[in-house]
Structures
1.
Amino acid sequence: MKLPLFNAPRAGLCTCLPKYNINTYLGRCAHQCIYCYAVKFPSFVGPASPRLKLLDQIESMTRNTKLKHPVMMSDCTDPYQPLEREYKITRRCAEVLAKHGFPLLIVTKSNLVT
Ligand code: SF4
Protein backbone atom coordinates (compact mmCIF):
# COMPACT_ATOMS: atom_id res chain seq x y z
CA MET A 1 0.00 0.00 0.00
CA LYS A 2 1.30 3.47 -0.97
CA LEU A 3 0.31 7.02 -0.13
CA PRO A 4 -2.75 7.92 -2.25
CA LEU A 5 -2.27 10.53 -4.96
CA PHE A 6 -4.66 13.49 -4.92
CA ASN A 7 -7.00 12.71 -7.80
CA ALA A 8 -7.85 16.15 -9.13
CA PRO A 9 -9.07 15.97 -12.72
CA ARG A 10 -5.99 16.14 -14.92
CA ALA A 11 -7.86 17.29 -18.03
CA GLY A 12 -9.52 20.29 -16.39
CA LEU A 13 -8.23 23.62 -15.20
CA CYS A 14 -6.47 22.23 -12.13
CA THR A 15 -2.90 23.54 -11.97
CA CYS A 16 -1.91 21.70 -8.78
CA LEU A 17 1.47 20.02 -8.77
CA PRO A 18 1.36 16.31 -7.92
CA LYS A 19 0.67 15.62 -4.27
CA TYR A 20 -0.65 12.91 -2.01
CA ASN A 21 -3.73 13.25 0.12
CA ILE A 22 -4.65 11.65 3.42
CA ASN A 23 -7.93 12.17 5.22
CA THR A 24 -7.24 11.21 8.81
CA TYR A 25 -10.94 11.55 9.64
CA LEU A 26 -14.05 10.71 7.65
CA GLY A 27 -17.57 12.05 8.07
CA ARG A 28 -18.94 15.56 8.45
CA CYS A 29 -16.31 17.91 9.77
CA ALA A 30 -17.13 19.42 13.16
CA HIS A 31 -16.52 22.95 11.85
CA GLN A 32 -19.74 22.64 9.80
CA CYS A 33 -18.89 25.42 7.31
CA ILE A 34 -21.94 26.16 5.18
CA TYR A 35 -19.79 26.40 2.04
CA CYS A 36 -18.05 23.03 2.55
CA TYR A 37 -17.90 21.05 -0.69
CA ALA A 38 -17.06 17.77 1.05
CA VAL A 39 -20.68 17.11 2.03
CA LYS A 40 -21.46 16.02 -1.51
CA PHE A 41 -19.17 12.97 -1.14
CA PRO A 42 -20.71 9.87 0.52
CA SER A 43 -17.69 9.25 2.78
CA PHE A 44 -18.02 12.69 4.35
CA VAL A 45 -21.55 12.68 5.74
CA GLY A 46 -22.56 11.52 9.21
CA PRO A 47 -20.53 12.13 12.36
CA ALA A 48 -16.78 12.62 12.08
CA SER A 49 -14.91 9.40 12.72
CA PRO A 50 -11.20 8.64 13.14
CA ARG A 51 -9.46 6.40 10.61
CA LEU A 52 -7.81 4.24 13.23
CA LYS A 53 -6.34 1.82 10.67
CA LEU A 54 -4.04 4.61 9.49
CA LEU A 55 -2.09 4.26 12.73
CA ASP A 56 -1.06 0.76 11.62
CA GLN A 57 -0.69 1.60 7.92
CA ILE A 58 1.09 4.95 7.75
CA GLU A 59 4.60 3.60 8.33
CA SER A 60 4.42 1.02 5.52
CA MET A 61 2.51 3.38 3.20
CA THR A 62 5.28 5.92 3.64
CA ARG A 63 8.09 3.40 3.19
CA ASN A 64 6.47 2.05 0.00
CA THR A 65 6.16 5.52 -1.58
CA LYS A 66 9.35 6.62 -3.31
CA LEU A 67 8.50 10.04 -4.82
CA LYS A 68 8.57 12.72 -2.15
CA HIS A 69 5.60 14.79 -3.32
CA PRO A 70 3.95 16.94 -0.65
CA VAL A 71 1.24 15.26 1.41
CA MET A 72 -1.98 17.21 1.98
CA MET A 73 -3.93 16.64 5.16
CA SER A 74 -6.77 16.83 4.39
CA ASP A 75 -8.97 17.73 1.46
CA CYS A 76 -12.37 16.71 2.84
CA THR A 77 -12.53 16.51 6.64
CA ASP A 78 -10.40 18.94 8.64
CA PRO A 79 -7.49 16.88 10.08
CA TYR A 80 -7.80 18.58 13.48
CA GLN A 81 -11.26 17.49 14.52
CA PRO A 82 -12.04 17.79 18.26
CA LEU A 83 -11.57 13.98 18.29
CA GLU A 84 -7.90 14.55 17.48
CA ARG A 85 -7.33 15.51 21.14
CA GLU A 86 -8.06 11.89 22.00
CA TYR A 87 -6.93 9.91 18.95
CA LYS A 88 -3.89 11.91 17.72
CA ILE A 89 -4.07 10.29 14.28
CA THR A 90 -3.08 13.42 12.40
CA ARG A 91 -0.18 14.01 14.76
CA ARG A 92 1.11 10.46 14.37
CA CYS A 93 0.79 10.57 10.57
CA ALA A 94 2.57 13.94 10.42
CA GLU A 95 5.42 12.59 12.57
CA VAL A 96 5.91 9.55 10.34
CA LEU A 97 5.69 11.55 7.11
CA ALA A 98 8.15 14.16 8.37
CA LYS A 99 10.56 11.44 9.52
CA HIS A 100 10.60 10.09 5.95
CA GLY A 101 11.13 13.54 4.40
CA PHE A 102 7.69 14.24 2.95
CA PRO A 103 6.68 17.94 2.87
CA LEU A 104 3.31 18.51 4.57
CA LEU A 105 0.39 20.67 3.40
CA ILE A 106 -1.91 21.06 6.39
CA VAL A 107 -5.36 22.50 5.71
CA THR A 108 -7.17 23.37 8.95
CA LYS A 109 -9.32 25.91 10.73
CA SER A 110 -8.45 24.49 14.15
CA ASN A 111 -5.95 25.83 16.64
CA LEU A 112 -5.24 22.21 17.62
CA VAL A 113 -2.57 22.32 14.90
CA THR A 114 -0.40 24.32 17.31
S1 SF4 B 1 -13.23 23.32 7.98
FE1 SF4 B 1 -12.98 22.65 5.86
S2 SF4 B 1 -13.62 20.49 5.91
FE2 SF4 B 1 -14.40 21.44 7.77
S3 SF4 B 1 -16.50 22.08 7.26
FE3 SF4 B 1 -15.12 23.84 6.91
S4 SF4 B 1 -14.61 23.72 4.74
FE4 SF4 B 1 -15.41 21.70 5.32
2.
Amino acid sequence: MTQSSVLLRCYIYTGPSTDVQIDTMEMTMRSLACLLLVLPAITLADRLPVIDVHLHAFAADQQGPPPLAMCTPIVLPAWDPAEPFAAAFMRAFKEPNCEDPVWSPTTDEELLARTIEVMERRNVVGVLSGTPERVAEWREAASNRFLPGLGFEIGGSREYSLETLEQLHGDGRLAVLAEVTNQYVGIEPDDERMEPYWALAERLDIPVGIHIGTGPPGAIYLGSQNYRARMHSPLTLEDVLVRHPKLRVYIMHAGYPMLEDLLALMYAHPQVHVGIGVIVHTQPRPAFYRFLQGITDAGYGNRVMFGSDQMVWPETIERGIAVIEEAPFLSEQQKRDILYDNAARFFRFSEEDIARHHGM
Ligand SMILES: [Zn+2]
Protein backbone atom coordinates (compact mmCIF):
# COMPACT_ATOMS: atom_id res chain seq x y z
CA MET A 1 0.00 0.00 0.00
CA THR A 2 1.35 3.45 -0.82
CA GLN A 3 1.58 6.15 1.79
CA SER A 4 -0.96 8.32 -0.01
CA SER A 5 -3.56 5.56 -0.22
CA VAL A 6 -3.24 4.96 3.52
CA LEU A 7 -3.61 8.66 4.21
CA LEU A 8 -6.69 8.77 2.00
CA ARG A 9 -8.25 5.88 3.89
CA CYS A 10 -7.48 7.67 7.14
CA TYR A 11 -9.15 10.82 5.95
CA ILE A 12 -12.29 8.93 4.98
CA TYR A 13 -12.19 7.11 8.30
CA THR A 14 -11.72 10.12 10.60
CA GLY A 15 -12.66 13.04 8.40
CA PRO A 16 -15.68 15.32 8.85
CA SER A 17 -18.85 13.29 9.23
CA THR A 18 -22.45 14.35 8.94
CA ASP A 19 -23.47 11.44 11.14
CA VAL A 20 -24.36 13.09 14.45
CA GLN A 21 -24.47 9.65 16.07
CA ILE A 22 -20.66 9.38 16.07
CA ASP A 23 -19.60 10.54 19.50
CA THR A 24 -16.22 11.82 20.68
CA MET A 25 -15.20 8.48 22.13
CA GLU A 26 -15.72 6.74 18.82
CA MET A 27 -13.78 9.42 16.96
CA THR A 28 -10.88 8.96 19.38
CA MET A 29 -10.94 5.22 18.77
CA ARG A 30 -10.99 5.80 15.03
CA SER A 31 -8.04 8.21 15.26
CA LEU A 32 -6.05 5.66 17.22
CA ALA A 33 -6.82 2.95 14.71
CA CYS A 34 -5.80 5.36 12.00
CA LEU A 35 -2.47 6.05 13.64
CA LEU A 36 -1.76 2.33 13.58
CA LEU A 37 -2.47 2.36 9.86
CA VAL A 38 -0.27 5.39 9.15
CA LEU A 39 2.80 4.32 11.14
CA PRO A 40 3.75 1.40 8.89
CA ALA A 41 3.16 3.66 5.90
CA ILE A 42 5.71 6.15 7.21
CA THR A 43 8.19 3.29 7.57
CA LEU A 44 7.36 2.34 3.99
CA ALA A 45 8.26 5.87 2.88
CA ASP A 46 11.66 5.39 4.52
CA ARG A 47 12.07 2.29 2.39
CA LEU A 48 11.59 4.04 -0.94
CA PRO A 49 14.71 3.15 -2.88
CA VAL A 50 17.72 5.42 -3.24
CA ILE A 51 20.40 5.19 -5.93
CA ASP A 52 23.87 6.23 -4.79
CA VAL A 53 25.96 6.92 -7.88
CA HIS A 54 29.20 7.24 -5.93
CA LEU A 55 30.34 4.47 -3.57
CA HIS A 56 33.84 3.15 -2.96
CA ALA A 57 35.00 -0.34 -2.00
CA PHE A 58 38.04 0.59 0.04
CA ALA A 59 40.19 -1.02 2.71
CA ALA A 60 39.57 0.37 6.20
CA ASP A 61 42.98 2.09 6.20
CA GLN A 62 42.60 3.65 2.75
CA GLN A 63 42.40 7.20 4.12
CA GLY A 64 44.98 6.68 6.87
CA PRO A 65 45.21 4.59 10.03
CA PRO A 66 41.70 4.04 11.40
CA PRO A 67 39.65 5.04 13.23
CA LEU A 68 39.21 8.42 11.53
CA ALA A 69 36.45 10.88 12.29
CA MET A 70 34.52 12.57 9.51
CA CYS A 71 32.67 15.72 10.49
CA THR A 72 29.60 16.61 8.44
CA PRO A 73 30.27 19.29 7.35
CA ILE A 74 34.02 18.90 7.33
CA VAL A 75 35.84 21.24 9.73
CA LEU A 76 39.40 22.19 8.88
CA PRO A 77 41.34 24.86 10.77
CA ALA A 78 43.28 27.47 8.81
CA TRP A 79 46.65 26.02 7.90
CA ASP A 80 49.89 27.53 9.14
CA PRO A 81 52.51 26.30 6.64
CA ALA A 82 55.06 26.08 9.45
CA GLU A 83 53.60 22.59 9.92
CA PRO A 84 53.30 20.02 7.10
CA PHE A 85 49.74 20.12 5.79
CA ALA A 86 49.36 16.34 6.05
CA ALA A 87 49.88 16.56 9.82
CA ALA A 88 47.28 19.31 10.23
CA PHE A 89 44.89 17.40 7.96
CA MET A 90 45.28 14.13 9.85
CA ARG A 91 44.77 15.88 13.20
CA ALA A 92 41.35 17.05 12.02
CA PHE A 93 40.42 13.38 11.50
CA LYS A 94 41.94 12.16 14.77
CA GLU A 95 40.76 14.99 17.03
CA PRO A 96 37.56 16.08 15.31
CA ASN A 97 36.29 19.55 15.98
CA CYS A 98 32.59 18.70 15.77
CA GLU A 99 30.03 17.13 18.05
CA ASP A 100 28.90 14.07 16.15
CA PRO A 101 31.51 12.83 13.71
CA VAL A 102 31.18 9.50 11.92
CA TRP A 103 34.04 7.30 13.16
CA SER A 104 35.44 4.94 10.56
CA PRO A 105 35.55 1.17 11.19
CA THR A 106 38.91 -0.35 12.05
CA THR A 107 38.70 -3.49 9.90
CA ASP A 108 37.83 -4.21 6.27
CA GLU A 109 35.09 -6.61 7.40
CA GLU A 110 33.44 -4.00 9.59
CA LEU A 111 33.61 -1.41 6.81
CA LEU A 112 31.79 -3.73 4.43
CA ALA A 113 29.27 -4.85 7.06
CA ARG A 114 28.42 -1.32 8.16
CA THR A 115 28.10 -0.14 4.56
CA ILE A 116 25.63 -2.91 3.77
CA GLU A 117 23.78 -2.23 7.03
CA VAL A 118 23.20 1.42 6.09
CA MET A 119 22.25 0.48 2.54
CA GLU A 120 19.68 -2.00 3.80
CA ARG A 121 18.31 0.44 6.37
CA ARG A 122 17.75 3.12 3.73
CA ASN A 123 17.16 0.75 0.79
CA VAL A 124 20.13 1.99 -1.24
CA VAL A 125 21.54 0.50 -4.42
CA GLY A 126 24.69 2.05 -5.79
CA VAL A 127 27.61 2.23 -8.18
CA LEU A 128 30.64 0.70 -6.52
CA SER A 129 34.07 1.98 -7.52
CA GLY A 130 37.26 0.08 -6.69
CA THR A 131 39.66 -2.51 -7.99
CA PRO A 132 37.98 -5.38 -9.89
CA GLU A 133 39.00 -7.71 -7.05
CA ARG A 134 37.57 -5.69 -4.18
CA VAL A 135 34.43 -4.80 -6.13
CA ALA A 136 33.87 -8.51 -6.77
CA GLU A 137 34.40 -9.26 -3.09
CA TRP A 138 31.85 -6.66 -1.98
CA ARG A 139 29.36 -7.79 -4.61
CA GLU A 140 29.63 -11.32 -3.28
CA ALA A 141 28.39 -9.99 0.04
CA ALA A 142 25.44 -8.06 -1.46
CA SER A 143 25.18 -8.48 -5.22
CA ASN A 144 21.67 -6.99 -5.33
CA ARG A 145 22.90 -3.67 -3.92
CA PHE A 146 26.05 -2.95 -5.96
CA LEU A 147 26.53 -2.14 -9.63
CA PRO A 148 30.13 -2.92 -10.56
CA GLY A 149 32.23 0.17 -11.23
CA LEU A 150 35.97 0.62 -11.57
CA GLY A 151 38.39 3.09 -10.04
CA PHE A 152 40.33 4.44 -13.02
CA GLU A 153 43.23 6.87 -13.30
CA ILE A 154 45.69 7.47 -16.12
CA GLY A 155 49.35 6.93 -15.35
CA GLY A 156 49.38 4.61 -12.36
CA SER A 157 48.29 1.23 -11.06
CA ARG A 158 44.67 2.12 -11.79
CA GLU A 159 45.21 2.62 -15.51
CA TYR A 160 43.75 -0.48 -17.13
CA SER A 161 44.17 -1.40 -20.78
CA LEU A 162 41.32 -1.08 -23.25
CA GLU A 163 41.31 -4.88 -23.54
CA THR A 164 40.89 -5.29 -19.80
CA LEU A 165 37.97 -2.88 -19.73
CA GLU A 166 36.29 -4.63 -22.64
CA GLN A 167 36.83 -8.00 -20.97
CA LEU A 168 35.45 -6.83 -17.62
CA HIS A 169 32.44 -5.35 -19.37
CA GLY A 170 31.86 -8.54 -21.34
CA ASP A 171 32.00 -10.55 -18.12
CA GLY A 172 29.35 -8.35 -16.48
CA ARG A 173 31.93 -6.91 -14.09
CA LEU A 174 31.93 -3.34 -15.40
CA ALA A 175 28.57 -1.59 -15.58
CA VAL A 176 29.84 1.96 -15.00
CA LEU A 177 33.31 3.37 -15.61
CA ALA A 178 33.58 5.31 -12.36
CA GLU A 179 35.26 6.88 -10.61
CA VAL A 180 37.68 8.34 -13.16
CA THR A 181 40.04 10.41 -10.99
CA ASN A 182 42.44 11.92 -13.52
CA GLN A 183 42.02 15.35 -11.94
CA TYR A 184 44.23 14.19 -9.06
CA VAL A 185 47.14 13.76 -11.45
CA GLY A 186 46.44 16.94 -13.37
CA ILE A 187 45.03 15.25 -16.48
CA GLU A 188 42.13 17.12 -18.05
CA PRO A 189 39.14 15.21 -19.47
CA ASP A 190 40.11 16.01 -23.07
CA ASP A 191 43.73 14.84 -22.66
CA GLU A 192 44.76 12.62 -25.58
CA ARG A 193 45.70 9.77 -23.21
CA MET A 194 42.06 9.56 -22.15
CA GLU A 195 40.62 9.76 -25.65
CA PRO A 196 40.63 5.98 -26.44
CA TYR A 197 38.75 5.33 -23.20
CA TRP A 198 36.03 7.85 -24.04
CA ALA A 199 35.73 6.19 -27.46
CA LEU A 200 35.46 2.75 -25.85
CA ALA A 201 32.79 3.89 -23.38
CA GLU A 202 30.81 5.43 -26.21
CA ARG A 203 31.13 2.35 -28.42
CA LEU A 204 30.15 -0.10 -25.67
CA ASP A 205 27.61 2.32 -24.17
CA ILE A 206 29.20 2.23 -20.73
CA PRO A 207 28.16 5.20 -18.55
CA VAL A 208 31.14 7.14 -17.19
CA GLY A 209 31.43 9.00 -13.90
CA ILE A 210 34.32 11.43 -13.73
CA HIS A 211 35.68 13.37 -10.78
CA ILE A 212 35.38 17.07 -11.58
CA GLY A 213 35.26 19.32 -8.55
CA THR A 214 36.28 18.99 -4.94
CA GLY A 215 38.74 16.44 -3.65
CA PRO A 216 39.97 16.61 -0.06
CA PRO A 217 40.74 20.17 1.02
CA GLY A 218 44.36 20.95 0.24
CA ALA A 219 44.73 17.87 -2.02
CA ILE A 220 47.79 19.47 -3.64
CA TYR A 221 49.62 19.39 -0.28
CA LEU A 222 48.58 15.80 0.41
CA GLY A 223 50.62 14.41 -2.47
CA SER A 224 48.48 15.27 -5.52
CA GLN A 225 50.92 17.90 -6.77
CA ASN A 226 49.28 18.33 -10.14
CA TYR A 227 45.76 18.78 -8.77
CA ARG A 228 44.48 22.25 -9.62
CA ALA A 229 41.47 24.20 -8.38
CA ARG A 230 40.82 25.52 -11.87
CA MET A 231 40.18 21.93 -12.96
CA HIS A 232 36.98 22.04 -10.90
CA SER A 233 35.39 23.64 -13.91
CA PRO A 234 32.90 21.38 -15.71
CA LEU A 235 33.78 23.23 -18.92
CA THR A 236 36.93 21.07 -19.03
CA LEU A 237 34.61 18.28 -20.22
CA GLU A 238 33.11 20.14 -23.13
CA ASP A 239 35.32 19.04 -26.04
CA VAL A 240 34.89 15.39 -25.01
CA LEU A 241 31.11 15.78 -25.21
CA VAL A 242 31.35 17.28 -28.66
CA ARG A 243 33.60 14.48 -29.89
CA HIS A 244 31.44 11.75 -28.34
CA PRO A 245 27.79 12.75 -28.61
CA LYS A 246 26.48 9.31 -27.61
CA LEU A 247 28.46 9.22 -24.38
CA ARG A 248 26.54 8.95 -21.11
CA VAL A 249 28.56 10.86 -18.56
CA TYR A 250 28.04 12.28 -15.10
CA ILE A 251 30.19 14.75 -13.23
CA MET A 252 30.85 13.16 -9.86
CA HIS A 253 31.22 16.26 -7.69
CA ALA A 254 29.09 18.48 -9.91
CA GLY A 255 32.06 20.72 -10.62
CA TYR A 256 31.57 22.26 -7.20
CA PRO A 257 31.75 25.17 -6.54
CA MET A 258 31.83 26.48 -10.12
CA LEU A 259 28.11 26.87 -10.56
CA GLU A 260 28.10 29.29 -13.48
CA ASP A 261 30.39 27.04 -15.54
CA LEU A 262 28.18 24.06 -14.69
CA LEU A 263 24.99 25.82 -15.76
CA ALA A 264 26.62 26.83 -19.03
CA LEU A 265 27.65 23.23 -19.68
CA MET A 266 24.26 21.77 -18.74
CA TYR A 267 22.51 24.25 -20.99
CA ALA A 268 24.73 23.54 -23.98
CA HIS A 269 24.84 19.77 -23.40
CA PRO A 270 21.45 18.47 -22.26
CA GLN A 271 22.76 14.92 -21.84
CA VAL A 272 25.14 15.81 -19.00
CA HIS A 273 24.17 14.65 -15.50
CA VAL A 274 25.76 15.49 -12.18
CA GLY A 275 26.38 13.53 -8.99
CA ILE A 276 26.54 15.33 -5.66
CA GLY A 277 29.00 12.92 -4.02
CA VAL A 278 30.94 14.24 -1.03
CA ILE A 279 29.77 17.86 -1.36
CA VAL A 280 26.34 16.83 -0.08
CA HIS A 281 27.73 16.11 3.38
CA THR A 282 31.17 17.79 3.56
CA GLN A 283 30.04 21.30 2.61
CA PRO A 284 28.19 23.51 5.09
CA ARG A 285 24.48 23.32 4.33
CA PRO A 286 23.97 26.98 3.36
CA ALA A 287 26.76 26.70 0.79
CA PHE A 288 25.64 23.34 -0.58
CA TYR A 289 21.97 24.35 -0.67
CA ARG A 290 22.83 27.58 -2.51
CA PHE A 291 24.72 25.52 -5.10
CA LEU A 292 22.01 22.89 -5.48
CA GLN A 293 19.27 25.47 -5.65
CA GLY A 294 21.26 27.23 -8.34
CA ILE A 295 20.97 24.04 -10.39
CA THR A 296 17.29 23.37 -9.65
CA ASP A 297 16.28 27.03 -10.15
CA ALA A 298 17.90 26.86 -13.57
CA GLY A 299 15.63 23.94 -14.39
CA TYR A 300 18.15 21.11 -14.19
CA GLY A 301 16.79 19.27 -11.14
CA ASN A 302 16.00 16.39 -13.48
CA ARG A 303 19.72 15.78 -14.07
CA VAL A 304 21.00 15.76 -10.49
CA MET A 305 21.72 12.33 -8.98
CA PHE A 306 22.36 11.51 -5.36
CA GLY A 307 25.85 10.30 -4.49
CA SER A 308 27.56 9.95 -1.15
CA ASP A 309 31.20 9.29 -2.10
CA GLN A 310 31.25 6.90 0.84
CA MET A 311 34.88 6.06 1.47
CA VAL A 312 35.42 4.70 4.98
CA TRP A 313 32.51 6.38 6.76
CA PRO A 314 29.38 4.33 5.94
CA GLU A 315 26.93 6.51 7.85
CA THR A 316 27.74 9.48 5.63
CA ILE A 317 25.38 7.82 3.12
CA GLU A 318 22.36 8.46 5.31
CA ARG A 319 23.59 11.88 6.40
CA GLY A 320 23.72 12.82 2.73
CA ILE A 321 20.21 11.46 2.13
CA ALA A 322 18.98 13.61 5.04
CA VAL A 323 20.49 16.74 3.47
CA ILE A 324 18.30 16.16 0.40
CA GLU A 325 15.22 15.14 2.37
CA GLU A 326 15.47 18.26 4.54
CA ALA A 327 16.14 20.74 1.71
CA PRO A 328 13.46 23.39 2.18
CA PHE A 329 13.44 24.50 -1.46
CA LEU A 330 12.87 21.06 -3.04
CA SER A 331 9.42 19.62 -3.70
CA GLU A 332 8.73 16.00 -2.76
CA GLN A 333 8.98 15.09 -6.45
CA GLN A 334 12.33 16.85 -6.84
CA LYS A 335 13.66 14.95 -3.83
CA ARG A 336 12.59 11.64 -5.39
CA ASP A 337 14.10 12.72 -8.70
CA ILE A 338 17.46 13.35 -7.05
CA LEU A 339 17.36 10.31 -4.77
CA TYR A 340 16.18 7.79 -7.34
CA ASP A 341 14.30 8.70 -10.51
CA ASN A 342 16.99 10.63 -12.39
CA ALA A 343 19.59 7.91 -11.92
CA ALA A 344 17.11 5.15 -12.80
CA ARG A 345 16.53 6.91 -16.11
CA PHE A 346 20.22 7.76 -16.68
CA PHE A 347 21.33 4.15 -16.13
CA ARG A 348 18.30 2.93 -18.15
CA PHE A 349 17.06 0.61 -15.44
CA SER A 350 14.33 -1.72 -16.67
CA GLU A 351 10.84 -1.76 -15.20
CA GLU A 352 11.79 -5.05 -13.54
CA ASP A 353 14.86 -3.44 -11.92
CA ILE A 354 12.80 -0.53 -10.66
CA ALA A 355 10.10 -2.85 -9.28
CA ARG A 356 12.78 -4.95 -7.60
CA HIS A 357 14.37 -1.87 -5.98
CA HIS A 358 10.98 -0.83 -4.61
CA GLY A 359 10.41 -4.29 -3.21
CA MET A 360 13.76 -4.69 -1.49
ZN1 LIG B 1 35.88 12.03 -6.44
